[in-house]
Amino acid sequence: MAGYGTTFMKALNDQVFGKAAFTNPNGVMYISLHTADPGIDGQTANEVSGGSYARKLTAATDWNASTNADPSVTTNATSLAFPTATASWGTVTHFGLWRTVSGTTAADFIGRGALTASQAIASGNTASFAAGSITHSFDSV
Fold first, then answer.
1. CA 50/CA 33 separation, integer angstroms
2. What is this structure's pTM?
3. Of the four, 109, 112, 118, 126, which is 20 to 30 A from 91 by CA?
4. Which of 104, 84, 90 is nearest to 30 (CA)?
């Protein structure tokens, strides 16, 4: 499953219907790595921690334009690499999208998805993703 978080979808819906101004990250967001699905609101995080792990900052140029398909899909346009692990991060199966580098609340969470291929990250490994290998859709689940 991939999709946007409930709080993010509410903010987007309120913007569309003129109920509240939407604070758009303008393509600037952070990718997190997870050992399980972070859930619809990011609160079941399972986010990697320790061993030099840090969320990866991305910009609009790191993402392809979305498709017209149902659901609409986007992928990473550039190769994305995380810091080299100095301890085991476990087997990474999912990613999260966040407004902030270290936020943990539903308000910080944008969305999530499963990786096209899981990666076992041991000390000395670098988690990296070739262009097109991270897929995110405009889906509600």
1. 12
2. 0.87
3. 109
4. 104
CA 33/CA 91 separation, integer angstroms: 10
- For residues 117 and 92, what is the distance between their CA atoms, to the nearest angstrom? 9
Q: Per the structure block, which two tokens stand in for 81?
A: 């690499």
**For each of the chain's 141 residues, which pLDDT tens digit applies?**
467 787 877 887 787 788 887 776 677 899 999 999 999 888 777 999 999 999 999 999 999 998 988 888 889 999 999 999 999 999 999 999 998 899 888 888 988 999 989 999 999 999 999 999 998 886 654
Query: Tokens in use for 51?
Result: 């061993």
Q: Which residues in 44-140 belong to E strands, given as ranges? A: 56-58, 73-75, 80-84, 90-98, 109-121, 126-129, 135-137
CA distance 43 to 49: 15
